[in-house]
Amino acid sequence: MIPLFLRYLILLPLIIVISAFPQSGAKKDFLVVENPSALTIFNKFEQTITESRKKAFPSFTPFLILNNNEKLSDGFTGVVRTNFRGEEYLVLLDIKGLSSGNKSENGVYLFENTSLLNDSVQMLKDKIVERIFPENKKIEFKKGQIFSRIFSDKKGTMILDPYGKYGFYKLENLKEKSDFNKLLVDKIADNGLDEVIISEIKSTVNSFNSTLKNINEYISDKRGITKEVPRFNINEEPNLLRITLEPIASAKLFSRTQNSLLSEIRLLLIGRKITLNERGNTIIISAESKK
C-alpha cells in the first residue's frame, strides 16, 4: 500500500499571492525557514499539517509574522501565527532566542522591522547580482526576466528569483528605470502566458513528476518490478502549453494525480486571461495571441 504522504501530496503555488499581503512599505517581521519539514506546523484550525504538505513548502520559505506570541487552544502551547501565499499557518517555535537576521541552529532566520516590498519587477538589461543565501555566490539576472521582491532590510532583499527559488540578495547595484521596471499588479494578472506564469507552471509540474518518481520507486521496491517512470511532459508553443501524462498506459492509473495537477494550475491562473482544458491525458493551457 502506498503511504499517505505519497498519495495525498498537496502542492502550493510557487509565487506569492500579492493581494493577500499588506500594503507595500509597511514594517513587518518575517520568519525565513530553510527546511519547513523540520518544524511542526499547524493550519489555522490547529491541525498538524502532513509531512507531504510540509515538503511542498519551498526551501527558505518566507513566512510573514502575524503574531509572534500566540497560544493554541490548550492555553499553553506557544506558536507563531504566520501567512504564506494567502494561507495562515501556526509554527511551533520560540523566537525569543533568535537573533534578528542570523540563522538559528534549526535553519530559521528572523527578520524584524523589514520594509515590505511585495512587488514584481522586470529586468531591462543583463546584470550580475550577489546572493547572500542560500550559498553566497554571483547570479546573472538576464534582460526580460521577472522576479518578485518580498521584503528588504539593511543587509539585503528577500526575493523569488527569476529561476523560481527564494533567496536573500544584495540588489544595491540594480537601479529602477535603468536596470529594471516595476510591474503593475493588474498587468501581471492579465499578461497571459508570460515568463512568470510559465515558470510557475513548470515548477509545479516538476514537483508532481518528483512525486510520480517516488511512487514508482516505492512500487518497484515492493513488487520487484521495474516499470517506466510516469511523468508529465511539457510541449511549449507560442501562447500554448500542452502537458501530457506519459506513457499513455499511466493515464488511467494516475488520473487522480492529473486532476490534482489540473487543480493546482487552475489556482495559478486566477485573474489571467488564459483558457484551461483537459483532453484525455493532456492538459491544454492557451492564451490569446497579442496583437
Your description of this structure?
The chain is an alpha+beta fold. The protein has two domains: 180 residues, no CATH class; 93 residues, 2-Layer Sandwich (Alpha-Beta Plaits). Helix content is 22%, strand content 37%. The protein has six helices and 16 strands. Strands 1, 2, 3, 4, 5, 6, 7, 8, 9, 10, 11 and 12 form a twelve-stranded antiparallel sheet that branches. Helix 4 packs antiparallel against helix 6. The longest helix is centred in the last third of the chain and has 29 residues. It is globular. The termini are far apart. The N terminus is likely disordered.
Summarize the structure.
The protein is of the alpha+beta class and 291 residues long. It contains six helices and 16 strands.
Termini Cα gap: 52 Å
**Main beta-sheet strand count, sense and barrel state:** 12 strands, antiparallel
- Average pLDDT over all residues: 81
Residue runs with pLDDT of under 50 for 5 or more positions: 1-21, 186-190
List the domain count as a whole number. Answer: 2
Q: Mind telling me the C-alpha Rg?
A: 20 Å
Beta-strand content bin = 35-45%
Helix content: 10-25%
Count up the helices: 6
Features:
disordered N terminus, 2 domains, Alpha-Beta Plaits, 291 residues, 22% helix, alpha+beta
What secondary-structure arrangement, pairings included, does this model have?
Elements: H1 4-7, E1 27-33, E2 41-43, H2 51-56, E3 61-71, E4 78-84, E5 87-91, E6 108-123, E7 127-133, E8 137-141, E9 146-152, E10 157-160, E11 166-170, E12 180-183, H3 185-190, H4 195-223, E13 231-237, E14 240-246, H5 250-253, H6 255-268, E15 274-279, E16 282-287
Antiparallel strand pairs: 1-3, 1-6, 2-5, 3-4, 4-5, 6-9, 6-12, 7-8, 7-11, 9-10, 10-11, 13-14, 14-16, 15-16
